Amino acid sequence: MIIIVALDKAWREYYAQIKECCEEEIRVIAKNNVAVESEIAIAEENVDLSNAKIIVASTDSALRSEEFASWDSKGAKFLTFVHPDTYIDNSSKIGDGTMVARGAIVGAETVIGRNCLVSRYAQISHDNNIADGCTLQEKVTLGGNCKVGTNTVFKSNSVLKEHCTIGSGVTCEVGAVILNDLEDGVSVYGNPARVKRQ
């Protein structure tokens, strides 16, 4: 059985892509007042961890990572989902609990950590190291030889130039073009990307 832990409305995309490709039963645990149809809902206390693979669904990296850690501490097994309509080089590695959506491309010698979300049509070039809990939304492009820290979010259509190091907890806003290294916790926007002032 596959269990999707729904933290926000992104669960519907996870559900649709997994259902399209998997014959296993899929059930959804609703959290944070997320609406889930009763016929696929399951209460957390009714989940048999010995017979379930968990995937945590959210576009919020920090929220997803917190929930992932909670399930990890219970000894849960995680579903790593890679849609069949993707290209992932055989030399690349994808961590537990990560979802790689339809149309994504992952180049050679790239490592994607645990509990990441690689959305539709994201393009990740060669020799990248993406830490746990990161989110790459639709049509994000990462150049080669980049290092990305934990819980970093690249919003739709953002671009990262090759040979950059991005800290942990960074947010790259929609369409940002990142040309340089970024420190932990900053938020950037624009082309070229500029740090948002707090």
Describe the structure.
With 198 residues, the protein is α/β, with parallel strands linked by helices. It has two domains: 2-78; 80-188, UDP N-Acetylglucosamine Acyltransferase, domain 1, CATH 2.160.10. The chain is 12% helix and 28% strand. It is built from two helices and 23 strands. It has an eight-stranded mixed β-sheet with strand order 5-8-11-14-17-20-22-23, with no helix packed on it. Strands 6-9-12-15-18-21 form a six-stranded parallel β-sheet, with no helix packed on it. Strands 7-10-13-16-19 form a five-stranded parallel β-sheet, with no helix packed on it. The radius of gyration is 16 Å and the shape is globular. It starts with a strand and ends with a strand. The model has no long low-confidence stretch (mean pLDDT 97).
